[in-house]
Design goal:
Blueprint: H1 3-31, H2 40-58, H3 65-87, H4 95-112
Helix pairs in contact: 1-2, 1-3, 3-4
Transmembrane segments: 12-30, 36-53, 65-83, 95-114
InterPro entries: DUF1422 (IPR009867)
Keywords: Membrane, Transmembrane, Transmembrane helix
Length: 124
């Protein structure tokens, strides 16, 4: 895999994480009475989706990237939900969103090759 293609893949994954985070923030702003209204999550969600779409149009995705990108989207959404519930305990427990986001984060790290064991040196 080329270095430029790896950069493009990371950019796609970061944009999908940001889109999940801003999407859940937009949903919380528009539907929850605990969260005060602000237009900025809506603008950020639109911009993240636009940038993600432009990235999709400009560069082809490697095999397995769409599944990892969707997982990053869910990590952002569940992560914001856990953060919001930690700030506002009257919304409920943050245990389930936190466990889901951590599980998905470990799966993404495994699929990206971050959790692989380094090669052990040979004994003399």
């Amino acid at each position: 895999m080329e270095k430029e293609q790896v950069k493009a893949e990371r950019k796609t994954l970061v944009l999908s994480l940001l889109a999940g985070l801003c999407g859940n923030a937009t949903l919380a702003v528009l539907t929850s009475s605990y969260v005060t209204f602000s237009i900025f999550p809506v603008i950020a969600f639109g911009m993240a989706l636009y940038c993600l779409y432009q990235e999709y149009l400009s560069k082809p995705m490697t095999e397995g990237t769409p599944a990892i990108a969707f997982s990053c989207f869910l990590v952002g959404a569940f992560g914001y939900s856990a953060f919001l519930r930690a700030q506002l305990p009257e919304m409920g427990s943050n245990f389930l969103p936190l466990m889901i986001s951590l599980g998905l984060l470990f799966w993404v790290a495994y699929k990206m090759g971050i959790m692989k064991n380094p090669a052990k040196p040979a004994k003399a």
